[in-house]
Amino acid sequence: MQVLDNAKKICISVIGSGDDALNPQIAKIANEVGREIASRGAVLVCGGLGGVMAEAAKGAKENGGLTIGILPGGDSGSANPFIDIALPTGLGFSRNVLVVYSGDAVIAVSGRLGTLSEISYALLKKKPVIGIHTWNLEQLSGRMPSYEAKAYRDSIIRCENAKEAVDKAFAIIENKEKCKNETN
Known about the structure:
CATH architecture: 3-Layer(aba) Sandwich
Mean pLDDT: 89
CATH topology: Rossmann fold
CATH class: Alpha Beta
Strand order of the largest sheet: 4-3-2-1-5-6-7
Number of domains: 1
């Protein structure tokens, strides 16, 4: 009889542009993020389409990882070929909420307006957001009261490469789990 492992797997949401014409440097970084996530036994969650999502999922698959794609449309066939579990939602961009809420941490690689919406949802949910060449929310700080400005300025943890980003994500998740276990 097979015994199931009931330990919860760490899930990392990877967000970024769905544009298939990615800058080669961004494509490489996204692929490396996926590889790093898989090398640690975590599950990669993304929007399941092209661009950063496909490159990250490809990197995870090449390193033996499990990938979940939360799709905007109703057809599981629209998922990129590196998605193991395709979850069609029929929600359009509203599925961005599900993408970021499903991760224990969020890694943003570059990105456009859809990525900005995902960053916003993650911050509202108090999810850690680690960014590589992504949005700079400091530009918002000049339009807010000073007590809120610092929160936006420091809200995205900036990293230069995939390893550093995944290291930070795991450090935050493990610290959060440690704190939770100490209070129980």
